[in-house]
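Pipeline run #58 for the internal structure catalog. This entry was flagged by the ingest filter as a single-chain record with no existing model, so it goes straight to prediction. Upstream metadata was stripped on purpose; only the residue string is passed forward. Reviewer on rotation: M.T. Logging verbosity set to normal.
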Amino acid sequence: MHVHLAWLGGCHLQRRLFSLILLSSLVWPALLDARDLKPGWNLFSKEQDVQLGKEAAAQVRQQMPIVKDAGINDYIRKIGRRLASQPQAGDFPYSFEVVADESINAFALPGGPAFVHTGLILAAENEAQLAGVLAHEIAHVALRHGTNQVSKANAVQIPAMILSGVLGRGGSMMDQLTQLGIGIGANSVMMKFSRSAERDADLLGTRIMSSAGYNPIEMARFFEKLEAEGGSRGPEFLSSHPNPGNRVKAVQAEIQTLPRRQYTTDTGDLARIQSSVSKIRVKPARTTPAGSTPSRSRQRSR
């Protein structure tokens, strides 16, 4: 009798052990995906990120046709502020502006200035897709990917500038870096992200979208749509934002680690805004601005 009870107890213990192993095999990958996403190694301070972003944004406004339409700008700012107000976005002074350019593109400079091309607004199938691109760009700012890239590519020059007291000592920080051959524009290393940076921006963007109430899966769907279209419509954004691979699956896995909530896909305003954007006339490109890569054509600002 005692032997029989001991055998039953052993079987029960084995079943419990097996259940724990099975549970851990399911939970552990989710815990890995839910890892804390933090900025990488960086020679710049957050204050210098903000200064660089302000200087670069001023140059963008001089060289690119900024849309003046109040309705279009208010719409993009409303989405941007909804996302930027989430705790994952950090405390950067975000701003959101629209560029009259038919290419599908958006970019964010260090410290928070973000620019959305009219071509991207027209390409979005719903507001959540537009919010997904903005959340992805906000994530790049929060994770400080731009200055992290510059730091890694200039690990000798920048420390020398810091030690000599040159960097940030009056004048334009962009000019100081440019004089040493360190490019800060969109065609520089600052705006060319690695696949690992793209993966982290996808994950943090997912969390930002979820907190703001947008369906995060729409971000991955929009990026995959650009990949599928290719040709003249997709490469501009994807050239600086390479696909980290399995975007939809990675975002779906990340969503499973987040609190359950009701998501918004559209507010009903996108069609009206797209109608306004479609009336902006196109004109040939003239120069390549600091905050964007060349495109075949641009649009007149309104």
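catalog note: Residues 42-299 form one domain.
catalog note: DSSP finds 13 helices and five strands in the chain.
status: ready for reviewer M.T.
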